[in-house]
Amino acid sequence: MKTVFFTFFTILAFQFIVAQEDMSIVWEAKLGHKIDYYGTDLSDNPDSYSFAADDKEVTFFKNSDGSTIWTKAYKDMAPKLRKVDELLAFWESNTVFLFDRKMGKDQIACIDMETGDLLWNTDKYQEVTEDVVVYIPEEDGFAISLRKELVFVKARTGEEVWNTSKFVGAVGKYSYNSGDRTMVMVNFMPSGLAAFFTGFKNQIARINMSNGEILWESTYIGRAERKVITKEFIYDLDVQDDKVFLKMNGLQVYDYNTGATLYSAAFDFTPGGLVKAPQGTKRFGVYRAVADPIIDGDDLYVLDMTDKKNQFVKKYDVHTGKLLWTSGEIKDARAIPGMKVVGDKVALQIGGRVETQYYRKYKSGDSWVEEWGVTFPEVKPFGVQAFNANDGTLAWESEKFKKGITNAVSFDQYHIVCSGKSLYSIDINTGEEKYEVPVSKGGVGQANLILTYKDDIVVVIGEKGVSTFNAANGELLASGSYKTSSLFDRHEDLVIMQTEKSDYAAFDIDTGNYKEFKAKTGAGTSLTRDGEHLFVYEKKVVTKLNTR
Q1: pLDDT per residue over 136-192, tens digit each?
Q2: All structural domains of the chain with their residue ranges
Q3: Which SS3 state, helix, strand or coil, does residue 88 take?
Q4: In whole angstroms, how far apart are CA 520 and each of 50, 371, 473, 500?
Q5: Between the N and C ends of the chain, which has fewer C-beta atoms within 10 Å?
């Protein structure tokens, strides 16, 4: 028996006071089978659809009204499948992969979403997971990364167009050129698959998508990653004016035509040892431990954290890569989650909250439990410093945050730092306080995080709720309470909160009002990209809700 829990042990708690209503139900659909797996087309356009499935059959339904498009047993769709261990939806291609894993005899069946008809199946590709399949819409095909090679197959037929052993690892972010059907792509090692790929090395390459020819390849510095649960890539790739820009632990620039490195203002950082992984963890990642590089006009600011004894801010000319200055050493910092350029100062947040995502599997009684977790642990030591942007000399360092810091936020005119107990408005030129406001004034307990909203509002995420303050003078604007909950998602002025028992609240930040839905414990949920609708999957029921 398999039990699945979706747990988001975030320390965040978003709570607003005022009116509370139930989320209105757009529709509710009861299926003829359990929901062990589900997938939602988050675009929520009028013609979109989603699915819910158990170990024997799957149902596709319309997102507009919940009506069933089709329900089929796996054995009727793909006779070679004895069971299904995973479903992987590719919404852009209108296909879904069904996986039957058999220790060296894995079966993959590709199904048409609209009809449930089998398009193709194969046992040629082994140990394929969600992390190693990428749909390339420009070519209407799948890039599948195997142990020793990369293969490209047509989406609708499964025909193998080409394979190459010259690119090893999963395909990450890419930039496609429709003029000559070439693609610049970065490889990466998915979390938990360190022993999977043979001969892995950091590669950025340009490939001819018609035949798989590698036109050039180069080596990048750092660690390309995709988050364990949310699957966001934590780097950016862009092509402009015959240059390839890779923004990852700094900036690396390549010649688009030859792959030659034009310059590198990057470093290799591994957040090992910052946070301990939970027991039984299969996949684990630590993110936001080092601030992203900042491009400010012609200037590039990079945090260089090569090792614990060599940590600096470096300023480069963004056009040439010329090093303009290196700051003094930032001693003993284990994490520097925040760097901001404010006026003619470069402000650093040393220590504070980082993000972890993990997947673990363990046995509880007779059941195997699969657990996905997102946490925001605190990393010491703490501090706040500012350097002069013109020469990198230390402008000031504050002693007030040695005992604790959540994070810092900046507006055009204000730099606000939170110690957990108080909000401090800092004069960016001198480091002196403009004001100090106790977070307790908002009545939400100690702060775990602060966020920006509009041009001059600070949102305090507290232990027992949320309060908002005017960034200019520290005046309390609003405060509210809900159940102990964690941040599920945010869309502009909308915040979705989730309790451990799967109750959901959608907050309108402007008014503080929220709408609630009480789901069954362990329910699965998906928020559409526009933030307007929440899909809830529980037992045999799918519910579509209005969040506003």
Answers
A1: 999 999 999 998 899 999 999 999 999 999 999 999 999 999 999 999 999 998 876
A2: 2-546
A3: strand
A4: 20, 17, 43, 10
A5: N
